[in-house]
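Review box. Two proteins, two foldings.
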Amino acid sequence: MDRSRAAEIRLPTSDAKRSNAEGLPPAGNDDERLGIRIIYTTHAGTAAALQMASQLGASLSVRPEVLLLYAVPYTLPLEESAVPTGFLEAQIQALVRESPAEISARVILCREPKRSLGQILNARSLVLIGGKKRWWPTKEQRLAHRLTEAGHHVIFVGCE
């Protein structure tokens, strides 16, 4: 069984169009390769990361992209998540409405989010992860550390 397959739903800022794709190709054009990727963690954490990304994006002249990776259980076909995709899209659309800058978004249905994230991100990507800062490593902080060790430029944005 191929664990790297994924179904992808792209959500542009203007209207929510769906397109399914097999595999996880890296971003297509130069603007996307140089872009800012925000990993969806929680609503508050992602909103804080979007706030930082809007400041960075304005100075770099790039549009931030939010990536929501959802793990589909092996008992279901990859294109069918346990949670309706409309719910996942609504989570992203709420962030799009609140965002101070124009953003793009993708909902990615996959089997193993950690492995899929490694295939989605280009080498040395600029990644923002939002979450609560604690003295013990949180799930978000561990993800930021793992991506840093993989060679990406990671900014952890703390939120309350």
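Next protein.
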Amino acid sequence: MYTVAIILPVYATPENKRLPYFEQAIRSFTRQNLANTNAVIVGIVVDDGSEEDVESAVKQCKDSRIRYSRRERKPDDLATLSNAMNFGIELCLNKSKDVFTSEEADEIAALTYLCSDDLLRNGSIEKRLGKLSRDTSFVYSDFAMFSDKNGMEYIKKMDFEPDVSKILRKCRAFNFPHPTSMWEINFLQKIKEFVGRKYGQQGVFDSTITQREDIDSSLSTFETAFQLGFGISYVPAVSYFTRMDTGGISSNGTEAEKIYYEHLVQEKHGTADEQLKTAKIMGNLKDDLPWSLGIYLPEKIKPTLRPIKQFIKPILFRLQHKELVTELSDLLN
């Protein structure tokens, strides 16, 4: 038997109204199954000092595969996802008997995570796990972005590049599906050791930043793979639904603060500021190419075309991705 661990970090308060989202995330987890009867999925809820009763929400789902663990926040802790993620990763690396049975702990093979306001697509774990091995060590896939107001809005993809040195140069804040990351467990330990030596970090995720922690961890992953000669794998399908702008464990910064942290993370990993700007521009054009051609139109005409775009584009998108839209609706209801 081998074990796949999914970390579910959550910080729920009366103000952030996180519990309803978290319950949807758990429901998407309960639909995950593996065809291989020798494998088991274990969900580790890391309650990051919530004021709401997260443990009761876990018990209500009545799925024995989900385990609860609470992390007590320290007075000097920053509001960052990194603390909860590192806590969960340590439980896995140390094969903690607090969350795993002895048999599960002995055979931990892979780890991924699910943010408390996001959703796993049906078959998400199985599809990614099928591409993971000790030689590849890391796998990612596409994901779909959605909002409670508009439903599914767009799909984020990244062209697969087998050369890790090349993909490291391409890995930017605007075009990598960070939440789909799944690591082989021994490789995760190597990432921890690498960032400890190079950046003085205490865990895989950087607890000194309060925005863009996922970008930082992705760059650390690719750096480690490049330095140690590991390969990577890609699943060319949507495996994950990301809910847009609901706030969470990390601080809810302004747009200027988010941009600041994007630059901070890129500089930390030695990527050029000018390359980041180029990636942002090209990423926006690629996501919206037919409409972006409107940049060549006279300024007076653009305002008249904008309502047409806002009306037609969502309709075309939903028709093109009817299966995904239906599945998302089912997960939310």
